[in-house]
Fold:
Amino acid sequence: MTDVAAIEARLSALAGRGVQIIDPRQTYVGPEVRIERIHAGVVLHPGTRLQGARTFLGPGAEIGREGPVVAIDCVLGERARLDGGYASGAVLLRGASAGSAAHLREGTLLEEEASTAHAVGLKHTIVLSFGTLGSLINFCDVLLTGGTSREDHSEVGSGFIHFNFTPWGARGDKATASLVGDVPRGVLLRERRIFLGGAGGMVGPREVGFGAVTGAGQVVRKDVPEDRLMVQPPRAVDIAYAPDQLDAAEPRARRQVRYIAQLHALLAWYRQVRLARVPGSREDVRAVLAAAIETLTLCVAEREKRLKAFLKERGEVMPELVAPELACPLAIAAEEPYVDHVAWVRGLGAEDATRCVEWLRAIEAAVLAAWPA
Structure:
């Protein structure tokens, strides 16, 4: 069979499964893509290129609404969208979307109904449910939480950059991940939203609290506490600089350990709550959550790699950061019919929500305990 005939055969097989291919002449599906992982109701617009054996498109997912898309090993949940651009290894849960000219690289996880507008670059970026990023943004190495719904969500204004590289040392480093909100409270979807003003940026590693607002047109260089409106004017700096000079290990090292601890808490939430709740009849949801767990594991490995290199250059050894096997305090079981995760979380009583926060905080604290005070 010729290459053209093989491509046509794959497209025909997809159409037979209920996939809508707007123009087969402008649609490419690689031979490694597993047809059974593309669900009925998927829409592939002209200019779609699907590649990679990990590729998974859930019911109603849509590719290329606003322009051509190259999607490699991406996993999209029900009604998730890649509207245009390039994505490799990204995971988008139900209803999440990325606008045209997106550039999503490995470690990208967008939870339910999280979204980006056009020309947004993400790598090792985790946006919890409903979080929204405007246009013309580079937001790599950040975890963003906060908000309760699509009408009440954390947001990053257009033209924002997370500066995730420092020039110190022989080659610089990326021990710079920033935490906007937090995991133990953020996953419960009942915290105050956060707003990072556009036409500016943030120098990692930073921490921003729930309810905080940073004004537009500034670069945030200090942490922002909860429920604060902050504009930080720049100060003049004119000092000698040596190309190989190093900053001290602290406070950056402990900040990165805390970030890793938060990722371990999020992994426990996904394994013991999110995935554990899904019955076998919803293999589409299970497949997407399994990919999310893979992505979070990858994010942990990336942060540990960056921290280890950072410490080594400063003559220090990174301790082993092991998350404890603490069981979720709630009785979690896979039940029929499956209740969507967001609806389930909203249905938790205040006491159960508090128990979950305490459980996730305990995981975070145990990982932090491995780091010298």
Residues 252-368 form one domain.
